Amino acid sequence: MQDLVEVTEAGLYCRRGDFFVDPWRPVPRAVITHAHADHARRGSARYLCASPGKLVLRSRMGGQAPIDVVRYGETILINGVRVSLHPAGHVLGSAQVRLEHGGTTWVVTGDYKLERDPTCAPFEPVRCDVLVTESTFGLPVYRWPSSEVIAADLDRWWRENRDAGRTSVVLAYALGKAQRLAAVVDPSIGPIVAHGAVMTMVEAYRASGVRLPPIDRVPPRARRVGGGRALVIAPPSVLGGSWLRLFGEASVAMASGWMTLRGVRRRRGFARGFVVSDHADFPGLLAAIEASGARRVLVTHGFADPLARLLRERGLDAAPLATRFTGEASPDAVGVEDDDPEAPASGTAPSPGADADAAAAGIRGAAVE
Ligand SMILES: [Zn+2]
What is the mean pLDDT of residues 28-49? Predict the structure, then answer.
């Protein structure tokens, strides 16, 4: 039987239903897993997303884009294909796409994580025959600390800086991680201040009903904002510019899954690296794949080859899915776009050399654990 989802020039395509999932070119009908720039592009004639993500997608797509919504779990028919969206736990409104036709069920995960995140609905496993999964952190070296540990580490760092009269600057992408960090820190430590790109998304989150602590926008012509007591949340693109000078003496930290590789943080000279990601870590990927019950797994977006190999060793029918991201399994290749979820700022990416090779080698060990 023909595959329900295939890769075309414009991206993942469901021929039977005549629609695309996260197309990278304008198409007549686009089902969007979430609003990050590498998944939601402008120019399509019609968009479909999960209802909690509508305002975020609207702020990314502009006021005129025709956006249809469905509730999580609600099934609609598109040219005879049953389509439903299910929480992916990645950012507000993020969804896995479930497709059913002719007795076969496919799920396209989009980006997802299993960790707790107070700013979005938690990941829900969806049973299927064929799973198309991301693999951004699909190597055994990538294991995340718990959300509680991350929050405690952030608070301690912020408190120490505040007591020394130093501003705490944490770099995090503007959609999702910035709001998550704001939601988990202790706002009694000091004021929280955000870059304009972050504030745009903060406002979309608030308008969508997500509760966040008070967050100040940096006023025009400001000087020494926050008096050395503030936690500043900004996208990595501010590095190297003059914006950071607004805060006087500052400790600059990066919040990213790539901070797992200590060499990355050191080479970039970040005062701190917080290992916090909105993608599944390695155990999370394996847990999600197992929970899907899928016998066939297509791996995309990240370390597709080694993860597919590991899954084959475990008896699954697994293969990398040849999308435009295939073969770009190094962090160097991630984050060409400014707000790519896990991009270290330009030029900061870890080399695919020693660290990644060692990590890739480790995958065999994990297979026999
Ligand atoms: Zn994403």
Answer: 96
Specify whether 165 is located in the same domain as 264.
yes
> How close is the Cα of 182 to the center of ligand 1, in Å?
18
CATH number, domain at 175? 3.40.50
Range of the domain at 231: 147-274
Provide the mean pLDDT of the chain.
87
Distance of alpha carbon 231 from alpha carbon 354, whole angstroms: 34
pTM for the model stands at 0.88
Question: Domain total for the chain?
Answer: 2
Is 246 within the bounds of a domain?
yes
Pair (57, 17) in one structural domain: yes
Would you say residue 355 has pLDDT above 80?
no
Does residue 156 share a domain with residue 98? no
Task: Give the pLDDT confidence score for residue 332 in this predicted structure.
Answer: 34
Provide CB contacts within 8 A for 210, sequence distance 6+. 92, 119, 120, 179, 183
Look at residues 274, 291, 315 and tell me which one is the last residue of a structural domain: 274
CA of 60 to the centre of ligand 1 (A): 13
Last residue of a domain, one of 256, 274, 292: 274
Cα 238 to ligand 1 centroid, rounded to whole Å: 20
The helix/strand/coil state of 84 is strand
Spell out the residues 6+ positions from residue 60 whose beta carbon is closer than 8 angstroms to its own.
Answer: 35, 37, 40, 175
Cα(111) to ligand 1 centroid in Å equals 5
Residue type, 147: S
- 3-class DSSP state for residue 11? strand
- The CATH number assigned to the domain holding 74 equals 3.60.15.10
Q: Which residue has the tokens 């073969």?
A: 327
Ligand 1 centroid vs 279 CA: distance in angstroms? 8
Q: Residue 277 Cα, ligand 1 centroid: separation in angstroms?
A: 10
Q: How far is the CA of 163 from the centre of ligand 1 (A)?
A: 35
% of the chain residues with pLDDT over 70: 86
**Mean pLDDT, to the nearest integer, of 165-187?**
97
Do 260 and 290 share a domain, yes or no? no
The Å distance, Cα 31 to ligand 1 centre, comes to 15
